[in-house]
Amino acid sequence: MSFDIIKGMATTLKNMTRKPTTISYPEEERELPPRFRGRHVLHRYDNDLERCVGCYLCAGACPADAIYIEAEENTDENRVSAGERYARVFDVNMLRCIFCGYCQAACPTGAITLESNYKLASFHAADLVFHKEQLLEPHGQSTVGSNEAWAEKPPEEVAQPIPQETHVFDGASASAAAVGLGNYPTERDVLLTDQEQDEDRRKL
Ligand code: SF4
Ligand code: SF4
Fold first, then answer.
1. Per residue of the chain (204 residues), what is the pLDDT tens digit?
2. Which residue lies with its CA nearest to atom 6 of ligand 2?
3. What distance in Å separates the CA atoms of residue 203 and residue 199, rounded to the nearest whole number?
């Protein structure tokens, strides 16, 4: 028996006693980390108004051109969001998305987050363009999503260039300050979970 065969059998025997690193998906699923970036969710305030104010910052920040928005003015008869405008159309093309999270980082109102849904496969390309109706939290639901997990400040050396904090995004002045926040009163006056960060935004 050649040495190579003995070596191969030894490797096999060694690994037979080890716990497998694979799991039997879909019967079993792994627990995902809190900052996992899966499919997007659009959030609401406690009073059911949509957080998205149709500012296009997420679409502008997206390196893959995956977000398509058509904004419309709120009126007294039809108030949808807490700002001057709301997103009448909000599409995210998952065939383009690279799950970088820039859209979430760029959003001044915490309206869009990447969440834990990763089951996005389909035989039809059209299924992978998610529309606002699919992305938006249902009426009566109001969460901040993974913004909570991201509120904790990362170490300086790995910090993302978040425009709300640095006023600069990828080297260019951010327009978050110009767009501002929603100007319509909401029941939840704290946008995110980080009070200090929230107050900092309101000064912009
Ligand atoms: S995660 Fe990145 S690529 Fe995907 S929509 Fe957001 S900004 Fe675009
Ligand atoms: S950045 Fe936020 S508020 Fe602005 S359009 Fe995108 S999701 Fe809506």
1. 688 999 999 999 999 889 888 999 999 999 999 889 999 999 999 999 999 999 999 999 898 999 999 999 999 999 999 999 999 999 999 999 999 998 998 999 999 999 999 999 999 999 999 999 999 999 999 999 999 888 877 666 665 555 445 444 444 444 444 444 444 555 444 445 566 666 665 554
2. 58
3. 7
How far apart are the C-alpha atoms of 87 and 50, rounded to whole Å?
9
- From ligand 1's centre to the CA of 130, what distance in Å? 13
Ligand 1 pocket residues where CB is under 6 Å: 61-64, 66-67, 92, 97-103, 114
Q: Would you put residue 98 in left (φ > 0), alpha (ψ -120 to 50) or beta?
A: alpha
Q: Among 41, 42, 51, 55, which is best to mutate for testing ligand 2, by the most ligand atoms less than 8 A from CB? A: 55
Closest ligand to residue 53's CA: 2
Rounded to whole angstroms, how far apart are CA atoms 165 and 22? 40
